[in-house]
Write a structure and sequence with these properties.
The chain has helices at 2-24, 27-40, 50-70, 74-98, 115-134, 145-168, 184-188, 256-260, 282-294, 308-318, 329-335, 362-370, 383-389, and strands at residues 198-207, 210-215, 225-235, 265-270, 298-304, 324-326, 341-346, 349-355. With 391 residues, the chain is an alpha/beta fold.
Length: 391
């Protein structure tokens, strides 16, 4: 029984530590997920609390995990785990039935699970949770009360500091498909042998006030009048890691291929919401934009999902001279966890990414990127070039 107790304590502890850590290094991603929940359940008024709740949730999970591993504050920890797992098991059951959000975000973006997979995972963890709760007084610890609180405070301080750092800069580990070194066209490609989505098609017909639903192989005679066609997804097909990267002008012209095949460096200023964009580093950003405007080595554009009126207001505030293009908000949030952030492309490769706070000065940008021999063009059609750029 002692072995089972220790397995339960360590297994649940490791899961909590991992879950708290992957959320903690991506606090904006966790905040976006809270926003999805609030919108799904009609709680939009809670959206201003999303970021604070994201920090709180990751910190609690991380602290609980360490408390389990080191057997500190065993009664308090056992109750916390039981309440935590009970709440989220019920929540994920509701999500699995009604599917208001497709991914619960329990492991951030490190591990994507369906709602049913998440619910089954929680059911398994609940078994171990009950074991450690029932036997909570059997776990031994040699730590004094003050030392136990000291041990708990260390992971608490650590995960909060990590979250703040990752918010001000970028996540320490990028689980998104737009990582540095990614060749975007490759991640957009669909393999020839990839499974296609399967749908069940049914048609609704009416006659003399009576409706019938039939499939394509059992169509009624011409005396019946068609009402509507319905399609039900039976099996999802292959979805490439990057499937929604589209750049459009404000008039609707698609320039995605132009950007991905551009032989120059292209700086993308990613600002999904210009109204809430931080302007503290706009001087450095404008300096890069001005250099690109006067150079043959670099392009500079802004990608946003904001309306034209918001773009006009932004340009007045910042004296921005660069062009603006439209990209889906979710795509922009996935590209970089910053508003604004900078993504550097060349021939479809992601060379580097920065939070606006870390915008390099112009001299550093020219030295480390523009004049870096690693990125010198040899031949537009040479496949080995792409390998050289995959850093």
């Amino acid at each position: 029984m002692k072995i089972i107790n220790n397995i339960s304590r360590n297994l649940v502890g490791i899961v909590f530590i991992f879950s708290g850590f992957v959320k903690g290094i991506d606090p904006l991603g966790s905040a976006y997920k809270f926003g999805d929940y609030f919108n799904a359940f009609g709680l939009e008024f809670l959206e201003p609390t999303a970021f604070s709740l994201a920090i709180l949730l990751s910190s609690l999970e991380f602290i609980i995990g360490f408390s389990l591993i080191f057997s500190t504050k065993k009664n308090l920890t056992a109750w916390a785990v039981l309440l935590f797992m009970s709440f989220f098991t019920i929540l994920t059951f509701i999500l699995a039935i009604f599917n208001p959000v497709t991914d619960c975000g329990c492991f951030g973006d490190a591990i994507i699970m369906t709602n049913w997979q998440t619910f089954l995972k929680n059911i398994v963890l609940m078994v171990f949770t009950f074991i450690l709760f029932i036997n909570r007084n059997k776990y031994q610890t040699n730590w004094s009360n003050s030392k136990q609180w000291s041990i708990v405070s260390i992971p608490a301080i650590f995960i909060v500091l990590v979250s703040v750092y990752c918010y001000r800069h970028l996540p320490l580990i990028d689980f998104m498909p737009y990582t540095v070194g990614t060749y975007i066209p490759e991640k957009m490609a669909i393999p020839d042998d990839a499974p296609s989505a399967e749908y069940k098609t049914s048609l609704i017909y009416t006659k003399d006030g009576k409706n019938i639903e039939v499939d394509l192989n059992n169509l009624p005679d011409s005396t019946w009048q068609w009402v509507e066609t319905k399609q039900e997804l039976i099996q999802e097909g292959y979805v490439p890691p990057i499937h929604d990267f589209v750049i459009q002008s404000m008039t609707g012209d698609d320039i995605t291929d132009i950007i991905l095949n551009e032989n120059k460096f292209t700086i993308l200023l990613v600002a999904y919401n210009l109204k809430n964009t931080k302007l503290s580093d706009i001087i450095k950003i404008n300096a890069l934009a001005e250099y690109c405007d006067s150079s043959n080595n670099c392009n500079f554009i802004c990608l946003t999902s904001s309306l034209q009126s918001e773009i006009d207001e932004f340009t007045q505030k910042t004296n921005a001279k660069y062009p603006f293009f439209n990209t889906d908000e979710i795509t922009l949030k996935t590209m970089i966890r910053a508003n604004p952030g900078l993504v550097i492309l060349k021939r479809g490769w992601i060379i580097d990414k920065w939070n606006a706070l870390d915008t390099p000065d112009l001299n550093g940008f020219i030295k480390n990127l523009i004049n870096n021999p690693k990125y010198k063009t040899k031949s537009n059609e040479n496949e080995s070039e792409n390998e050289d750029l995959n850093v």
